[in-house]
């Protein structure tokens, strides 16, 4: 069985995309963790999808997610 990073690299190749470097993987995993702990578990993959769809920098997106998470239970809208 491949590791998660091996699977992601193979999936990227199948999509014709560049593989993710270790720093990006770590940032996206942290982003997913912030999203999941600040909301529901479904927020983790969908937040990462939105980062890609928006063409956003993962590091900047992580900072945004951390800011939203720090807002706590307040109105996010």
Please give a structural write-up.
There is one protein chain. α2 crosses α3 and α2 packs parallel to α4. Helices cover 70% and strands 0% of the residues. The chain is mainly alpha-helical. The chain has one domain. The longest helix is centred in the middle third of the chain and has 17 residues, at 22-38.
Number of helices: 4
> SSE order in H/E notation?
HHHH
Shape: elongated
- For the residues shown, what is the average pLDDT? 93
Helix/strand layout:
Blueprint: H1 4-15, H2 22-38, H3 43-54, H4 58-70
Helix pairs in contact: 2-3, 2-4
Short description:
The protein is mostly helical. The chain is 70% helix and 0% strand. The protein has one domain.
Descriptors for this entry?
single chain, 77 residues, mainly alpha
């Amino acid at each position: 069985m491949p590791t998660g990073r091996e699977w992601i690299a193979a999936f990227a190749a199948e999509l014709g995309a560049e593989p993710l470097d270790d720093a990006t993987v770590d940032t996206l995993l942290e982003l997913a963790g912030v999203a999941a702990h600040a909301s529901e578990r479904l927020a983790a993959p969908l937040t990462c999808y939105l980062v890609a769809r928006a063409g956003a920098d993962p590091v900047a997106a992580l900072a945004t997610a951390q800011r939203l998470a720090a807002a706590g239970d307040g109105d996010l809208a």
